[in-house]
Q: What sequence folds into this?
């Protein structure tokens, strides 16, 4: 390795001259690079998160419907998807949630590390990660030594080493992950999730339309991911698992053919909305309970299917749930019909709805 003039800026990036910096102790350029130092920081940050804040992140995950569904250990695909879900929830939480005494985990950990980071350039690089979010990328081109991806909402292109392309068998597939600058280029933090190219165009359009609505409501591009990431992650994972079958509800004991028709309508329409499977089954169970307790006289199955659909999505999705009008339009009935039956079914299913946190809302509205 060549010698460095003592009067030149130190190559470590400290902005001091060499003789007052690394030249005090060594005669050659330090063996660890900025990229290696940044990668070491990432590794230690994730270890710190797992050791100190894993319970907080698990509590956070329980707030979202997918986690309960994923906690099914008998099915290998569910276990794998559960692990993927937790990995990306953890990554998002580290940089975006103030769960470390009012700070993000990243901010807390960085404050403990400055004296151990040698280079000023490394510190500035690491600080550029503050508020980073996982995003959705389109895999545009696979070259012999690199891949080109594009942020589907920001329309910014990045080139990544081929190591991130080995598992991507086709162009126009989608990747979900967090890109961070490591000094020598952009790298994913952890392994990104890869989604097949089939259906990409429709999915990208959905997210672009949702971003437009978010911007019209005075939201920003970055906080679109910061606020809604858990729901975006859930929807994408459920799409990836779309070949998992729901239980055969025709085998349940129904008192009439119309009770079964209602259940089938609930299942079909909620599946079309990409509702989690456990949410769909919750709706079926609530409908079964209502049939046993209320013995409904069913003239139009769409009316009761819409009502159960609205009740369950309102309980589990809160402000992200469809409105009564949206549900009514989906089932081709009037909004007034849902409103009319809403309180009646609530009185009969008080205990079931209480377990979903619905009863206070219903008492308030009526």
A:
């Amino acid at each position: 390795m060549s010698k460095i003039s003592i009067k030149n800026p130190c190559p470590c990036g400290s902005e001091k001259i060499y003789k007052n910096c690394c030249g005090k102790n060594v005669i050659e350029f330090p063996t660890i690079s900025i990229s290696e130092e940044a990668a070491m920081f990432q590794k230690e940050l994730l270890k710190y998160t797992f050791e100190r804040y894993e319970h907080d992140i698990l509590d956070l995950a329980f707030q979202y419907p997918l986690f309960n569904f994923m906690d099914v250990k008998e099915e290998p695909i569910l276990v794998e998807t559960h692990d993927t879900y937790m990995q990306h929830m953890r990554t998002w939480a580290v940089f975006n949630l103030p769960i470390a005494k009012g700070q993000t985990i990243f901010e807390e950990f960085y404050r403990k590390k400055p004296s151990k980071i040698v280079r000023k350039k490394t510190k500035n690089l690491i600080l550029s990660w503050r508020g980073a979010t996982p995003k959705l990328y389109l895999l545009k081109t696979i070259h012999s030594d690199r891949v080109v991806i594009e942020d589907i909402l920001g329309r910014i292109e990045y080139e990544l080493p081929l190591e991130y392309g080995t598992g991507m068998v086709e162009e126009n597939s989608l990747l979900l992950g967090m890109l961070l600058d490591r000094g020598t280029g952009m790298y994913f933090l952890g392994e990104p999730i890869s989604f097949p190219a089939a259906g990409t165009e429709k999915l990208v359009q959905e997210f672009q339309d949702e971003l437009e609505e978010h911007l019209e409501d005075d939201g920003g591009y970055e906080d679109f991911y910061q606020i809604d990431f858990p729901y975006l992650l859930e929807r994408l994972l459920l799409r990836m698992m779309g070949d998992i079958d729901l239980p055969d509800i025709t085998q349940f004991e129904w008192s009439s053919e119309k009770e079964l028709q209602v259940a089938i309508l609930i299942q079909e329409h909620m599946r079309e909305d990409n509702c989690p499977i456990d949410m769909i089954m919750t709706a079926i169970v609530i409908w079964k309970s209502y049939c046993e307790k209320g013995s409904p006289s069913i003239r139009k199955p769409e009316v009761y299917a819409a009502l159960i659909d609205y009740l369950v999505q309102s309980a589990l999705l809160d402000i992200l749930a469809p409105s009564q009008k949206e549900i009514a339009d989906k089932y081709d009935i009037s909004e007034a019909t849902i409103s009319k039956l809403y309180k009646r079914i609530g009185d009969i299913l008080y205990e079931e709805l209480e377990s979903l946190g619905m009863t206070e809302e219903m008492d308030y509205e009526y």
Observations:
- Confidence is low (pLDDT under 50) at residues 26-30, 358-366.
- The radius of gyration is 26 Å.
- Residues 42 and 189 are 8 Å apart (CA to CA).
- DSSP finds 14 helices and seven strands in the chain.
